Amino acid sequence: MTTNGTVAAILRPSEKTWAGLYDIGLIFTGSFLIALSAKVRFLLPFSPVPITGQTFAVLMIGALLGSRRGSLAVLAYLIQGIAGMPVFTFGGGIAVLFGPTGGYLIGFIPAAYLTGRLAEKGWDRRIGTTILAMMSGNVVIYTFGLLWLTCLMGFSAKPFMVGVYPFIIGDLLKIALAAVLLPSGWKLLESTGLCEKPEKN
After folding, report:
1. How far apart are CA 39 and CA 36, in angstroms?
2. CA dist., res. 157 & res. 150, Å (int)
3. Please, which pLDDT band fits residue 46 given cuts at 50, 70 and 90?
4. 80, 129, 138, 168: least CB-packed within 10 angstroms?
5. Over the stretch 115-174, which tens digit does the pLDDT of each residue have?
6. pTM for this structure?
7. Angstrom distance (rounded) from CA 4 to CA 43
8. Which helix (H) or strand (E) holds 32?
9. CATH of domain 7-192
10. Distance between CA atoms of 197 and 176, rounded to whole angstroms?
């Protein structure tokens, strides 16, 4: 039993061959879930950036799989999209990365890594730290998205108005959902004896 690590790390098989297959399976499953979340979309008439389920999926995958597997899942997703598979919200192809959502897509990689790293330190086991971890991941995504929108639209208030402001309430709801799901999942694992309850600092 262990008191640290992610859910994926705790459930990982000890035998080397199975552990490798387990990692590969999680990475591609994660990329598939991100692709599915991209199709949950709401178009905004005043913004070229749609509301999707991607942010929630990326941050949850980072928290569940950890920094390495989580970021690799996002990278696999992007490679699939660049290769032409219709996994992005608006289809596939490298041209999508040069469109208004390109910055957000690239930002998914460091966001998943950061959220996964914080989860490896146990931040996803308590409501308060889960909220902070998810907010940190969102800040990374917003930063990359805004930087790219600024390149496309120029330095003004417009990138913020179309790329951040419309999504704040939705992201707060996603963070609240994660703050319920992740600590609850850990309590379930603790009840099965697969992991120990971490000591309070």
Report:
1. 6
2. 9
3. confident
4. 168
5. 999 999 999 999 999 999 999 999 999 999 999 999 999 888 888 898 899 899 999 999
6. 0.90
7. 40
8. helix 16-38
9. 1.10.1760.20
10. 22
